[in-house]
Write a structure and sequence with these properties.
It is built from eleven helices and 13 strands. The model has no long low-confidence stretch (mean pLDDT 97). 34% of the residues lie in helices and 17% in strands. The chain has one domain: Metal-dependent hydrolases (TIM Barrel, Alpha-Beta Barrel), CATH 3.20.20.140. The structure holds N-carbamoyl-L-aspartate and zinc ion. The site of N-carbamoyl-L-aspartate (NCD) has 11 residues, from loops.
Length: 345
């Protein structure tokens, strides 16, 4: 049997939610991952250091007995965020990053930023203390086609912001386009990108061909095949500016299978199996550890995990549950549409 041992991976972009859903999903991450950057888009969002401290306690309380997992907390940037609170959270080690959602860009983002001038004092303080900004990189202007929103964001928001504040460390999260990859590669410093599992596997056909398939709908929405290939090339290259952020985003089925379904794909269950498959397909299994376990910690100024996990390639396909039950309803697990043979031992 083929095996592959890696340092224990981390997830640099994860939605754990709260309450019943948190309890149902946390074990799927803590089973394989040592740490994760936790997204703050709860209802209401995690906006202050004290909100983040309380949420962190709820996450730790929901962990399955015996699992060791470190939630790396983020704050949801608003036009009213207090720079002193951010600095205190950052310096105490509780806060690992601040998350920028352009208002209206995605699930629970209506409290995000409309006028970037209002956020400048916080961003300047973050640049000063070296606290990274995690960015949902899409404009929300109705005139801009949804498939172009990332490229337009880079040109009209991100690049001007980085020119104005070159010392700010920016993580461009869930990059979905060749434009995003090229922009990150063209930058010498203070810019990196996370890439999801599902954007390495699906293009927009998965959502739209043969019927509308809500479980492949997420934001940023999957793009054309040439973009998927650019993401794969970046992820499997070993380039230290790219690392895994699953963006695993559970929603219960009734909220996805309806006339106006939520964006988000639940990939925590089989992410490591999917990634081993993708990297093997691209003859890059030797680069998997950089993507899942080395590049992210280096970017966030942390040590890689000392523990390891071992992946095994089985002859027969590995079975995963189709759904995860939660007290709030079933959550559909990502189906890569090909059999998976790799599993975590
Ligand atoms: C995320 C969610 O559901 O919170 N949805 C998604 O499609 N990725 C929000 C986000 O990261 O955009
Ligand atoms: Zn997300």
């Amino acid at each position: 049997m083929k095996t592959l041992t890696l340092r224990r991976p981390d997830d640099w972009h994860l939605h754990l939610r709260d309450g019943d859903v948190l309890k149902a999903v946390i074990g799927d991450t803590s089973r394989h991952f040592a740490r994760a950057i936790i997204m703050p888009n709860l209802v209401p969002p995690v906006v202050t250091t004290s909100d983040a401290r309380a949420y962190r306690e709820r996450i730790l309380a929901a962990l399955p007995a015996g699992d060791r997992f470190e939630p790396l907390m983020t704050l949801y940037l608003t036009e009213h965020t207090d720079p002193d609170d951010v600095e205190e959270g950052g310096k105490s080690g509780l806060i690992s990053a601040v998350k920028l959602y352009p208002a209206g860009a995605t699930t629970n983002s209506h409290g995000g930023v409309r006028d970037f001038n209002k956020a400048m004092p916080v961003l300047e303080r973050m640049a000063k203390i070296g606290l990274p900004l995690c960015v949902h990189g899409e404009v929300t202007t109705p005139e801009v086609d949804i498939f172009d929103r990332e490229a337009v964001f880079i040109e009209t928001v991100l690049d001007p912001l980085r020119k104005r504040l070159p010392e700010l460390k920016v993580t461009m999260e869930h990059v979905t386009t060749a434009d995003g990859i090229d922009y990150i590669k063209s930058s010498e410093r203070n810019l990196a990108g996370s890439i999801t599992t599902h954007h390495l596997i699906i293009n927009r056909n998965a959502i739209l061909v043969g019927g509308i398939r809500p479980h492949y709908y997420c934001l940023p929405v999957a793009k054309r095949e040439n973009h998927r290939l650019a993401l794969r090339a970046a992820a499997t290259s070993g380039d230290a500016r790219f690392f895994l952020g699953t963006d695993s985003a559970p929603h219960v089925d009734p909220l996805k299978e309806c006339a106006c379904g939520c964006a988000g794909i639940y990939t925590s269950v089989n992410t490591m199996s999917c990634l081993a498959h993708v990297f093997e397909d691209d003859n890059a299994l030797d680069k998997l550890e950089a993507f899942t376990s080395l590049n992210g910690p280096a970017w966030y100024g942390l040590k890689p995990n000392e523990e390891t996990i071992t992946l095994e390639k089985r002859d027969g396909p590995v079975k995963f549950p189709d759904k995860r039950d939660s007290g709030a309803g079933p959550i559909t697990v990502f189906d890569p549409m090909f059999p998976l043979h790799w599993d975590v031992a």
